[in-house]
Amino acid sequence: MLKSLRLLIPVALVLTLSACAGAPQRLDAAGDVHSLLTAIRDGDEATFERHVDRQALRDQIEARIAAEATRAGGNEEMRALGALLGSAIAQAASEQLIRPQVFRGVAEYYGYDAAQPLPGRVAIAGSLKALDDGRVCATRAKDGPCLLTFTQTEGVWRLSGFEGDIDMLRR
Predict the structure, then answer these.
(1) Confidence class of residue 52 from pLDDT cuts 50, 70 and 90?
(2) CB burial readout 74-103, b (16+ within 10 A) else e
(3) Three-state DSSP class for 48?
(4) Are 39 and 104 contained in the same domain?
(5) pTM for the full model?
(6) Nearest alpha-carbon partner for 92 in 108, 123, 69, 73
(7) Measured over all CA atoms, what is the biggest interatomic distance in the chain, rounded to whole angstroms?
(8) What is the DSSP letter of 107?
(9) Residue 75 domain-assigned (yes or no)
(10) Could you give the number of structural domains in the chain?
């Protein structure tokens, strides 16, 4: 019986540690996500900029808008026009979309309200999911799909991807 107990303890320890995999990463990211949410709530452009990887986010949003423009319309001419102008339209649109007031709508989708206090770091960490490539993402539900992706660069977790419906940014 003692021998069985000696084998059971390491197995239990491994299972406990694996359940916490990514927890330090999520907790670390949660502090910067909280700062981003505060900047969005307050319309603080400078703090917003520090917590956004503008180039990565712009590239992703532009690609998605250009793809939508190319698919738009039911006829061949409209798709060709979308393919021709999609990139230019997407570039101009992305500059207008990456702003605190636009992402306020995304935060509201998560249930954040400017009139309510923001959740603390531990609560935010609970809504983040550690990804295999070292990034973290925010999901609306525990096992739901990623909506916002954050990448750590130069010691700061920055918003680097938006996987939600593009219409959320147009509101």
Answers:
(1) very high
(2) eeeeebeebeeebbebbeebbeebbbbeeb
(3) helix
(4) yes
(5) 0.76
(6) 69
(7) 77
(8) H
(9) yes
(10) 2
